[in-house]
Amino acid sequence: MAQHVTAGRRYLRAFVSGFFVAVPVTVTVLDRLAYVARVEGASMQPFLNPEGGLESDVVLLNRWSVRNYQVQRGDIVSILSPRNPQQKIIKRVIGLEGDFIRTLGYKKRYVRIPDGHFWIEGDHHGHSLDSNSFGPVSVGLLHGRASHIIWPPNRWQRIKPCLPPNRGPLDSEEEDG
């Protein structure tokens, strides 16, 4: 009987010490590498949440890939909301610093994106609080890049950068004309 008690204590001690190692490692991984987030609302329809309110997509947000604030046009990113820093929002990158953008209802029809900023929009214009509401976004608010849809299972896929039709920076010909 004494052997069972000693073995039980050894297993308990191993579990507790493993727990105290696993928790900091897990927190570091989630803080530095990637984490999952549920996409709520209609702002990114039809690409995310195509079924509307019936079922929310869950995406893998890659934090490592944005550690140097490197994003490209068409990426879907998570940022801290410029209006409410307690909230994270998911939008598509439309323009990068130096680009000229034709806005969709911002106070100016055309905007040059300042250094250290980018322009984000939801895919469902009119149902999105994005750069058309608050202007260019500081890259310092960047939190992660959506790399995969991981839920629901029938929507599993890698997310590739793409711009919606007629969005993105203006060509030099359009700027002149």
From TrEMBL:
Location of the Peptidase S26 domain: 14-102, 107-151
GO CC terms of this entry: mitochondrial inner membrane peptidase complex
CDD domains documented for this protein: S26_SPase_I
PANTHER family in alphabetical order: MITOCHONDRIAL INNER MEMBRANE PROTEASE SUBUNIT 2 (PTHR46041:SF2)
Subunit structure, as described in the record: Heterodimer of 2 subunits, IMMPL1 and IMMPL2.
Family membership: Belongs to the peptidase S26 family. IMP2 subfamily.
Name of the protein this chain belongs to: Mitochondrial inner membrane protease subunit
Gene it is expressed from: LOC115391781
